What we know:
single chain, alpha+beta, FAD/NAD(P)-binding domain, 8 strands
Amino acid sequence: IEEAIEEGVIFRFLANPETIEGKNGKVVGMKLQIMELGEPDEQGRRRPVPVAGKFDYMPVDNVIVATGQKTDISGFEALERNKWGYIVADEGTFRTSMEGVFAIGDATNEGASIAIAAVGEAGEAAKVIDSYLAGNEVPYRRPYYSKRKFDAEELADRKKMARARMPRHDAGERRRDFREVNLGYDDKVAREEAKRCLECGCHDFYECKLIIHANRYPIKPERLEGDKHPDFTEESLVVIERNQGKCITCGLCVRECDIVVNKGILGFVGRGFNTVIKPEFNDQKIIAECAECRKCVDVCPTGALRVITNK
Length: 311
């Protein structure tokens, strides 16, 4: 938006095209219905509503229609719809109000979304419908993902770094051609920008055994919501990094180091809820005996241990 404004684009908000007017076979202007934000709905969204009797006129010489589209659901009048006119479909079974009729995608519930969302929903609906036709309907259940809220205090140890300004083509020049607005970072700046990443995503998401079991069984961790373990990352003297926030103190790394590798470097430090896995007796000198075999990383089921590749 900022780049468009720099090039002279004028945005008219809360103004809905009512009619396009022409003269001598050419477009000359548009009549605009002035809108205002209505009352919040059940989701807190305030949708635009017309201001009675209030219009504006905009002189134009060319019009490109780029307004939002709506799904044509004519022929399905018998199906229950919500107040926005979309077909009401169950989120688990994709059933509509009519037996044997299923609906997905932009035509249902919340309306239009990105295309890939409808494609993905089609795949899940196909499985549900197949089970329905087989006489043993299995509703779709959204996959469980581990979510955790954190605040600025938990990032207090992170060094603050200002965002690098993206170099751009001059606005006066680029408004006359179709070049990309941004020139891109050079190698040095790109590397510095990458260091700003908080890495809040999990590197072992696709290998995490905890997620696999959470989705296999109807896990509802919200029932046990309460205190949480301290979330800190600790780098040892070797090439292994430990993220305490992901550790479930299963002890696999402790046993692997003790029984398989015969080193016994790791142990349980503390008692009860605040137990953490560290070098035995919390003695950091012991870690110097690590053989760097990385077997503890291999057996960790949640990705709490990972190899530092840039060390």
